Amino acid sequence: MVIRELIAGFFVCTGFFFFFTATVGLLRLPDFYSRLHATGKGDTLAVLFSLIGLAVYEGFSLTSVKIVLIAVFMFLAQPTATHAISRAAFRCNVKPLTTPGGPNR
Amino acid sequence: MIRESDDVIVRTVARLLMPFITLYALYVVMHGHYSPGGGFQGGVILAAGFILLVVTQGIDRVKRRMSQEKAIIFSSLGLLIYAGIGALCLILGGDYLDYGTLGRPLSVQRAEARSLGILGVEIGVALGVMAVMCAIFFAIFTPDQKNGRREQ
Amino acid sequence: MNTFFLIMGIGMCLLVMLCLFRVIYGPTILNRAAGISAVGTKTLIILLIIGVVHRRVEMFVDISMVYALLNFIGCLVLAKYLERTGEV
User: Fold this and answer.
1) Which chains touch A (3 or more CB pairs under 8 A)?
2) Residue A104: inside a domain, yes or no?
3) Domain extent for C78
4) Of A73, B69, B93, B145, which is most buried with the most CB atoms under 10 A?
5) DSSP per position, C9-70
């Protein structure tokens, strides 16, 4: 019982850490592509870790199976959404920042 | 006019996810009386699946499956199921939407007849909501014929 | 364990507040779209944590699934719109 809670706590804490880094990246990085890079990868990994932790905490039941299904869905959907947004930015001629101190877009 | 997305990743993922979205919508409709959800929410998720198809596969391919005329027919059908079950209860001697009276023709207990009646009404609501959402979406995204305005 | 999940939920709410900074002050619409996507992802986990704290996960997991679905479709529609109009 205690071991299960420890594993769940470890996974949720790891997920929270990746959420935190993704948010810091979204706030602090200088141009649009790097911000999207931070949130796209960081949030996907964080959601996977948090959902696995919550599923372990629930134990084996229909609810935990549904949580794992959400994890599979997010694993497919989140990179696709990020890819679509970055492609739209590329089509809109958003230039990546190549020199330090360039315009903030 | 929404054209097909020229991105193979988006198209493939949408095609992969569409059956599961529809299955989940049917689950939400069927489990309306145990968990959050029901007819309206299930219908909205069904319509969201159609909107995903329109955005990724182009509006022409979707209109072969679900045209505006079909959407109007489906919404009327959903309303007919809802009102028909209500009127059937009225004919069988109860109040409007008093599902308990459906037990005699279905030859089941009163409580079971109530559960079945609610399920039938929710299926009608889901059909209606799905069709109306699709009709609104098509009406917004079909170019205006009268003004001859052409989108890029 | 309940307190732990409560603290995690409050922390994620604070992270959502920080993401809203990018949504409000983002220089272009695309930055706002990225911020909205991040907020939606965090909301998914916050919903599940609310369910764990109140011991009604089997109820909140359905809402969470629908939230993930609508977040995905919303992102795709926004990307399609921005791609079509061609201006940010």
Assistant:
1) B, C
2) no
3) 2-85
4) A73
5) HHHHHHHHHHHHHHHHH-SSHHHHHHHHHHHHHHHHHHHHHHHHHHT-HHHHHHHHHHHHHH
